[in-house]
């Protein structure tokens, strides 16, 4: 029997403390989702209280108070789902930690929403339903509330199953379903709906093709050359300039419209000047950063990390500027209709409404974003800083190209399409090299078809899940919205 020595007593105490520590860690892990749900309920309640304060708390303002709660719920879901598309590639490439990505995204999403989010929003989601079709203001308010609630529920379901979906399309489906339930099929602009349906295909294809083209360029001009470091010193500043030009043009269109009128030509000129300037400034920095690096692919990843982090921050800023209206557009419409007893296609967004949207997106990201960030960043295909940079630059260029062509596109579809584009290009390139290698080999050592299928670089299960979620987003949100409209009508809102 061992003696009861101080050493043995300390050993027993350490074992007991380790058991308690493991139990505490397990309890914290299990309770983490409950913390997020509890904090979200507090935020939704505070949003409703803020609406009560700003509307004077009068009985007729009950619809605005409830709509503010729905808008806060929608904003939380946008943060949980949509923001993953901007930060996922940077996290998957290990250029950012999960905590760092969440911090950067929360700051830049809020800044984009508050600084560059438009003062005027098309509350009918880009003309999907005709305001003139609503002779009763209460029916219009009910339709906007149903659209908000149904879109939030659908995005919440998609986040739960691990599918990044378009929050814009969710709101579009919600507005369409509520509009049909309230005023019939004639109130929907089916031409606009057709253009949006076309964007289901255009957005991911355009994003994927551009991302694959940039990756092909990097392989051709930097990776597959004898002196990789010298090539990187030449071409990485060019790629940084191209990324800067795209972001500067986009942000000029979004952010400067409050100060001066900016058309596409002016925005492209601003982008070109900014791109040339930053490309030139980055050249000496890249040269200094590359000193002492070995002539190998691993060294190239170092040179893309900082540009990738910057691009992720700019994507978050642009997303906050563009997509906050998905959370607060219908809410702003309810506020306007309640205050003016009228219906309008475009209204100003009150500051308190914009703050609800900005804070909700940030809180949703912090509490629920890591799941989708991890899925987009590492579970679709393997990303490194170069591949992730291709996704980021593709998103920026595609949005500008779509704006120039007047195409309604989804930032979610573009970003995830870029990830797919990079993965499928790598598959094609790897298969091409394998065919060349095996062409002269005896049949005995050639890979069987089953093994070739196992080595696919894009996870087909995630690909099929995401495509299915994209296809059913608008009809699913529309059906949910019609049900929510009937429920709100029954409750007397």
From TrEMBL:
Topology relative to the membrane: Multi-pass membrane protein
Any one of the GO BP annotations: phosphate ion transmembrane transport
Signal sequence interval, chain numbering: none
Gene Ontology MF term list: phosphate transmembrane transporter activity
TM regions (residue ranges): 34-56, 62-84, 96-116, 140-163, 170-188, 194-218, 230-253, 259-281, 302-321, 349-368, 388-405, 411-428, 463-488
Key words of the record: Membrane, Phosphate transport, Transmembrane, Transmembrane helix, Transport
Membrane found in the keyword field: yes
Compartments it resides in: Membrane
A GO cellular component entry from the record: membrane
InterPro entries noted in UniProt: Phos_transporter
Family designation: Belongs to the inorganic phosphate transporter (PiT) (TC 2.A.20) family.
Protein name, entry field: Phosphate transporter
Organism field: Pseudooceanicola atlanticus
């Amino acid at each position: 029997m061992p003696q009861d020595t101080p050493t043995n007593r300390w050993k027993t105490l350490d074992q007991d403390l380790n058991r308690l520590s493991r139990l505490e860690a397990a309890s914290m892990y299990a309770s983490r989702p409950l913390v997020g749900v509890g904090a979200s309920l507090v935020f939704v309640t505070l949003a409703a209280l803020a609406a009560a304060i700003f509307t004077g708390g009068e009985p007729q303002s009950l619809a605005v108070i409830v709509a503010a709660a729905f808008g806060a719920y929608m904003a939380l879901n946008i943060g949980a789902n949509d923001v993953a598309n901007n930060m996922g590639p940077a996290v998957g490439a290990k250029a950012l930690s999960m905590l760092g990505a969440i911090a950067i995204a929360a700051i830049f999403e809020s800044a984009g929403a508050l600084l560059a989010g438009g003062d005027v929003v098309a509350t009918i989601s880009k003309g999907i339903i005709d305001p003139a079709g609503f002779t009763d203001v209460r029916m219009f308010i009910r339709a906007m509330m149903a659209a908000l609630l149904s879109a939030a529920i659908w995005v919440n379901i998609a986040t739960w199953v691990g599918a990044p979906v378009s929050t814009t399309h969710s709101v579009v489906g919600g507005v369409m379903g509520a509009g049909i339930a309230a005023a019939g099929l004639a109130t929907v602009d089916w031409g606009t709906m057709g253009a949006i349906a076309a964007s289901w295909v255009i957005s991911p294809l355009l994003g994927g093709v551009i991302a694959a083209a940039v990756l092909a360029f990097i392989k051709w001009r930097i990776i597959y050359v004898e002196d990789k470091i010298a090539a990187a010193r030449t071409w990485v500043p060019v790629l940084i300039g191209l990324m800067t030009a795209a972001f500067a043009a986009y942000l000029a269109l979004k952010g400067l419209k409050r100060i001066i009128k900016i058309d596409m030509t002016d925005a492209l000129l601003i982008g070109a000047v900014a791109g040339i300037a930053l490309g030139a400034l980055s050249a000496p920095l890249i040269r200094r950063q590359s000193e002492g690096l070995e002539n190998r692919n691993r060294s190239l990843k170092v040179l893309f990390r900082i540009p990738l982090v910057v691009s992720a921050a700019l994507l978050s800023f642009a997303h906050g500027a563009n997509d906050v209206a998905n959370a607060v557009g219908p809410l702003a419409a309810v506020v306007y209709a309640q205050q003016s007893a009228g219906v309008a296609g475009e209204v100003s967004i009150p500051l308190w409404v914009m703050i609800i949207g900005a804070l909700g997106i940030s809180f949703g990201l912090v509490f629920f974003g890591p799941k989708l960030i991890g899925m987009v960043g590492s579970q679709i295909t393997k990303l490194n800083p170069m591949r992730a940079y291709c996704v980021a630059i593709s998103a920026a260029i595609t949005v500008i190209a779509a704006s120039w062509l007047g195409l309604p596109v989804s930032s979610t579809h573009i970003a995830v399409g870029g990830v797919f584009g990079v993965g499928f290009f790598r598959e094609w390139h790897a298969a091409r090299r394998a065919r060349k290698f095996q062409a002269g080999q005896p049949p005995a050592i050639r890979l069987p078809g089953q093994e070739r299928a196992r080595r696919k670089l894009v996870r087909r299960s995630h690909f099929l899940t995401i495509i299915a979620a994209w296809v059913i987003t608008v009809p699913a949100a529309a059906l949910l919205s019609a049900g929510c409209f009937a429920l709100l009508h029954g409750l007397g809102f």
